[in-house]
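Incident log, support desk, overnight shift.

02:14 A customer reports that sequence design results differ from what the structure should imply. Their input is reproduced verbatim below. On-call engineer (initials T.W.) acknowledged and began investigating.
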């Protein structure tokens, strides 16, 4: 038959060598992120005509692809890149099953990670404010509740103002984070679809 004249196994091996990524490894994900960088930056620049927005999108895309991506739900490159701070992601890893919709899902993944970091940051800030208020209370500067109130308003007011004036840049940050995360999830999906089709082909051949 026709197939006997064509070395299908050889073609298969070449294809696997070129494209086979069952569930892209950390290195494959890293190179997808890096190859995507000029595309994401160029497209944003083209559509917004604003180099600052393009740079912000590029930076957050890179950050998301390399260390703020969906694979923070396992012991991954992304997880290891947090270095000393990686323990912050331990509860996240414990809470989510690998490739859960809450880490790999569209919008849900990135929003979940932002909320997670905000929660940790908020708790740290809360303890900081409490400590500072108690210290100023005992030093007789002002009562602890007034100290806490002035500190909170002193933090929130400028942050809110910044959000209002630079909302485009904040939107760019979010867009970059989401794009970096989606480049990961999409390659995961393509990788496993490819693997499934290969397995099916192999079992058909073995029959
Ligand atoms: Zn993944």
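02:41 Re-run completed on a clean worker. Output:
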């Amino acid at each position: 038959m026709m197939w006997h004249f064509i070395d299908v196994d050889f073609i298969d091996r070449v294809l696997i060598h070129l494209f086979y990524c069952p569930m892209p490894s950390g290195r494959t994900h890293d190179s997808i992120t890096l190859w995507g960088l000029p595309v994401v930056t160029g497209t944003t620049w083209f559509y917004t005509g604003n180099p600052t927005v393009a740079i912000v999108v590029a930076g957050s895309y890179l950050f998301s692809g390399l260390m703020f991506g969906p694979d923070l739900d396992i012991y991954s490159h992304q997880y290891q890149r947090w270095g000393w701070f990686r323990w912050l992601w331990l509860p996240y890893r414990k809470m989510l099953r690998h490739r859960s919709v809450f880490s790999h899902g569209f919008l849900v993944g990135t929003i979940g990670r932002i909320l997670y970091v905000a929660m940790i940051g908020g708790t740290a800030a809360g303890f900081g404010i409490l400590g500072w208020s108690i210290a100023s209370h005992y030093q007789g500067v002002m009562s602890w509740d007034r100290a806490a109130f002035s500190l909170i308003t002193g933090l929130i007011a400028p942050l809110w103002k910044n959000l209002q004036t630079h909302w485009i840049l904040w939107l760019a940050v979010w867009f970059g984070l989401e794009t970096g995360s989606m480049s990961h999830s999409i390659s995961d999906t393509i990788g496993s679809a490819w693997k499934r089709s290969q397995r099916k082909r192999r079992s058909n051949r073995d029959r």
